[in-house]
Design brief:
Blueprint: H1 2-10, E1 28-31, H2 45-52, H3 58-66, H4 84-97, E2 102-106, H5 114-125, E3 130-134, H6 138-144, E4 148-152, E5 155-159, H7 163-191, H8 193-234, H9 237-242, H10 245-287
Parallel strand pairs: 1-2, 2-3
Antiparallel strand pairs: 4-5
């Protein structure tokens, strides 16, 4: 649903219902992973950019491409053998050259290395136009967006909260499903006494998993507090103007590390929760 929405705004899809109104002077820059396939494999980044700006001096084009790490001979290397991340950087550079006032980015950090992801985050955080971003990169979302939209069950609605609230919503939803499974199991236990015996046998397996979940949740709460403090600093324009470049870079790096740790912990939480649900399901089957 999210990519479909962005494609409709970009004009690649015709809306099946409703009305799409574009303001006068709107200039859209659209990036999606499928656009990497539209790059010409037998041409170079410099040739691609020259096609957009045939009157520009080569030095000007090279300097611009250098901002996206296409310097020297790399600017004249063929696109075909490049990695997915390098192709993504080239596509983003071509979009940036056009200076759009509305950026539509669909998972822009896929395939990008950490350094390029951080550079993109810094660039977007200072972008003065409008931005619609579809991403699972929590660090990028926290640093560049001021409003969240929830795309779910065929509907789009403004989400009244931040990413931490969204994470809590997802985790709570999973806990609710887990709780419902246990409640259903309790109902079945009243009908089949054997299931109660099976659950007692599985208690020793469930307890360590639950303890791990509790530990992860405590760590997530601590890191979330640290991220909120960093976000306050990074949201202050004076921090970038008055702060030393190495301090800004170190803060962004720390922010990225903590965000990735949150993603890792949440993935681990879901993995353990799945194991716990499997234990419950196995207990139910054994009792049956």
């Amino acid at each position: 649903g999210k990519s479909t929405l962005v494609k409709a705004v970009a004009g690649d899809l015709v809306p099946q219902a409703g009305e799409l109104r574009r303001g006068a002077g709107l200039a859209i820059g659209y990036f999606a992973q499928h656009q990497l396939d539209q790059l010409r494999a037998d041409e170079t980044p410099l040739q691609h950019l020259r096609r957009l700006a045939p009157e520009a001096r080569e030095q000007q084009l090279r300097e611009f491409l250098g901002q996206y790490r296409f310097s020297g001979e790399f600017a004249t290397s063929l696109i075909g053998p490049m990695s997915g991340g390098e192709k993504a950087r080239c596509a983003l550079a071509l979009i940036a050259w056009k200076r759009p006032n509305l950026l539509l980015l669909d998972e822009p950090t896929n395939h990008l290395d950490i350094e390029t992801r951080e550079a993109l985050t810094v660039a977007l955080s200072s972008y003065e136009g409008a931005l619609i971003l579809v991403s699972h990169d929590r660090h990028l979302l926290r640093a560049t967006t001021d409003q969240l939209w929830l795309v779910h069950d065929g509907e789009v609605a403004s989400f009244d909260g931040d990413l931490d609230d969204y994470s809590s919503l997802i985790l709570a939803s999973r806990r609710e499903r887990s709780s419902k499974n246990e409640t259903d199991g309790a109902d079945r236990r009243s009908e089949r006494k054997q299931e109660a015996v099976a659950r007692q046998r599985m208690a020793s397996t469930r307890k360590p998993l639950q303890n791990k979940l509790n530990t992860i949740e405590a760590e997530l709460a601590q890191i979330s507090n640290e991220l909120r403090e960093l976000d306050v600093r990074l949201a202050d324009p004076d921090f970038y103007h008055s702060g030393a470049p190495d301090v800004v870079a170190a803060t962004l790096k720390l922010r990225g590390e903590l965000a990735r740790k949150v993603d890792s912990l949440e993935s681990r939480w879901l993995e353990i929760q799945t194991q716990l649900e499997a234990v419950v399901e196995g207990s139910n089957k054994a009792a049956a």
